[in-house]
Amino acid sequence: MENSEYLAKKIRLHAVKMVNSGGSSHIGSVLSIADILAVLYGHIMKYKATQPKWPDRDRFILSKGHGGVGVYAALAESGFFDTRKLMEHYQDGSIFSGHVSHKGIPGVELSTGALGHGLAVGVGMAYAAKLDEEAYRVFVLMSDGELNEGSNWEAMMFASHHKLNNVVAIVDRNRLQSMNTTEETLTLEPLQQKLEAFGWEVISLDGHEHDVLKVYLSVDYEKRYLDKPLIIIANTVKGKGVSFMENQIAWHYKTPTGELFDQAIKELEGV
Amino acid sequence: MRNGFMRSMFALAEESKDLMLITADLGYGVFEEFEKKYPKQYLNVGVAEQNMIGVASGLALEGKTVYLYSIGNFPTLRCLEQIRNDACYHELNINIVAMGGGFSYGGLGMSHHATEDIAIMRALPGVTVVVPSTEWEAEEATLALSKNKGVGYLRLDKSKATIEETGRAFSLGESNMLLNGDDYAVIVAGGIAEEAIDAAYALSEYFLSLKVLSMHTVKPIDKEAIADLVKYYKGIICIEEGTKLGGLGSAVSEVIMETQNYPKNFRSIGINDQYICIVGSQKFLREESEMTADFIVKVILEWESLT
After folding, report:
1. Which is nearest to B16 in space by CA: B65, B61, B67?
2. Taking CB atoms and an 8 Å limit, are A124 and B59 in contact across chains?
3. Nearest CA-CA partner of B153 in B210, B114, B105, B199
4. Is the pTM of this model over 0.80?
5. Residue B270 phi/psi, 5° resolution?
6. What mean pLDDT is predicted for residues A225-253?
């Protein structure tokens, strides 16, 4: 198994266990981004786990903060802190909150949780890199439902206006949001054309195919777009990897317990 | 006040290339010279305040000291959650500058009356809230905020008190005495200090002397100065061009109640729990809201007849 495939599996297993022991929500949203996180942390991004503030590191922002357990798991598996800490998630007094937090957690660049914040901060970081002639890249992972927030579109205009080709936004296009499908809630389509109209280079791909993600997230590929920011519409399945969670809005909220928990673990372990 | 602010911005930009001034498309005729001189340290993000705070947070996370500028409620209320979550929670060196405190833009209508900003910004943990009463305070506060940890809020006013200011030292969190007096004290924040000074002159005709203290830093507040006033003065008036709910008067009251040393007389002057639906000059709207020199005099003369 490829490194990133193995990392994705570990992220999913940690996530289900964390959500189960914490009694927390959003497992479906974590499972849909596990492959993206694994490719970024396992293959694409430059970082030093023992030196989280290494100036040349690539920056990663999870704008859909409710997927926080996925980031915690990715960071722990990448060596930022002990994986045993993950089980503190959602316990009384814990810093491992339901929405991703940077306080006391090495490797988290930005605390999020309210939607529509991450991209603006990310493009601010990218603008700083341009000013200071730094080579790091900024990755911002967003949800599709999150695009309802107008602040994202402000940030998109800013990024293309300033030709911030060092920022890569990734939309977790799982097509489900809090209450319904994205299209029945507030139509996003034609999403690709909208994003292109905002001046971004847009790539639509399968957000679970590691090889494809690797190609399009790699530096060499980005260099072709000399004066545009890149946004990837990563078509994903909410709840990916656990049969009964896939494409089910309920798993935005429910906690897997008992037999369902056991089944989820079995499926993810491939037993 | 804005001139004082700009003088300091030039000084700070000269001092450090990591100083940045960002506007959300306001400041016509104000920033052109700065932009010309420091093009890499100036940015107009367009009419997009939420993005302004986000971009500033990204810049500050990368080591920049950022001043954000807009007018009225735009750089505060419009993007409050970005201020709270992105700037404050990450303890970033971002200073939010709002031109047009209170009724500075009184004629433009309710949207442009910045009347809840002090209360709201005060409620955010870690924010240093500065409401200068004079141009000198505005200039000094701008400098001081650059070295001050965390998010700052600087509320500039079209009006200002004018006093002799040579030989003074400015420090965030330490009130600035605008006029000395023995009988009553006014604690003020903002250009409305000019009303307190006028009141002091009017009261001298009644052989009453008024101390006017500029509480330019509403948070963290100068508790010692408040304790001294409570101890030695016959009454304290707080006056601010903003809502009485949660602003300067509330802050002073909290200090008094917590220390359990109560003044003989106390009055908070500001806007009642309402929006001002009429327009007019700053002076006119103060009169309509009973927050003028005459009103201060009236309150004190009422106290005098009771004492």
Report:
1. B65
2. yes
3. B114
4. yes
5. 180, -160
6. 95
CB contact under 8 A, B55 and A116: no
The whole domain housing A161 covers 3-269
Which residue from B minimizes the CA distance to A156?
B51
Q: Is this complex's ipTM strictly greater than 0.85?
A: yes
Q: Which residue has the tokens 């037993």?
A: A271
Instruction: Identify the CATH number of the domain defined by range B176-306.
Output: 3.40.50.920
Rounded to the nearest angstrom, the minimum Cα separation between A44 and chain B is: 21
Tokens of A113: 């949780």
Q: Distance (Å, rounded) from C-alpha B96 to C-alpha A218?
A: 37
Mean pLDDT of all residues in chain B? 97
Q: Do B40 and A131 touch (CB under 8 A)?
A: yes
State the smallest CA–CA distance between residue A238 and chain B in angstroms.
Answer: 27
B85/A155 touch (CB, cutoff 8 Å), yes or no: no
Q: What confidence tens digit (pLDDT) does each residue in B103-141 have? A: 999 999 999 999 999 999 999 999 999 999 999 999 999
Report the gap between the CA of B120 and the closest CA in chain A (Å).
Answer: 19
C-alpha neighbours within 13 Å on the C-beta side of residue A186: 10
Pick the CATH number of B2-156 from 3.30.930.10, 1.20.120.550, 3.40.50.300, 3.40.50.970: 3.40.50.970
